[in-house]
Amino acid sequence: MEYTVMMPAAGSGQRMGAGYNKLFLELDDKPILIHTLDVFEKDPACVGMILAVKPAERERIQSMLTQFSITKVKALVAGGSERQQSVAACIRAHGEGGIVLVHDAARPFISQSVIYELVQVAKEHGAAIAGVQAKDTMKFAPVGIVEETVDRSKLWIIQTPQAFQYTVLQKAAEKAEAEAFLGTDESMLVERLGHPVRIVESTYDNVKMTTQEDLVFGEILLRRRQGNKDDSSRTRF
Ligand code: C5P
Q1: Is 224 near ligand 1, meaning CB less than 6 Å away?
Q2: Per-residue pLDDT for 227 more than 50?
Q3: 155 Cα–ligand 1 center, Å
Q4: Is residue 191 pLDDT above 50, yes or no?
């Protein structure tokens, strides 16, 4: 089943503290952005990519795409000051229908099998998002004093990709814009339509490269995956 991936890549990465877009930081001599794009470049079901970038970084990203032979990017659109606005620019640029995936450029470790399942579920039901079950004990404490211990078996930590029938996502984005609603993911916008959103179980290694510690984890994951290519008997994260 074919899909197009929309990738917000226009953040400033302040929490990484690099002083520039964290997606340019390298893991194993390759920028994080390219690691993420490579996953989709290699997936035959991915028929196109739309990237939201900062206008000032457009040229640098364009030459990185050439250098690393990323061929499926059909548009580089101008990102906004919020992630949701960057995704909205991708949605406007697509305008074609079919299945679309929204995926953070800062999550290079997404697995192919999760992508496949997300696309299947979105095709059938309209909306599917990647998530993992909460591992820690969860407390509700709006002002720092515990009001309730929440049943963690019912809680999911949500990641990207988030997959949608394009018409569902477009309608959700239009409603959010008309009502000046700002969410933290695309699913929130679709939930506001009253459309059910299904969760596809993902893996704990699909981390968003956010702080310096994530880079250390990322290096370990990469090394482990490279090792796994030579030794398929090793445990995978
Ligand atoms: O900052 P954070 O890691 O949560 O951002 C998630 C993704 O959204 C990143 O890939 C980042 O580049 C992108 N983003 C964006 N436009 C913004 C803010 C973030 O495209 N205004």
Answers
A1: no
A2: yes
A3: 24
A4: yes
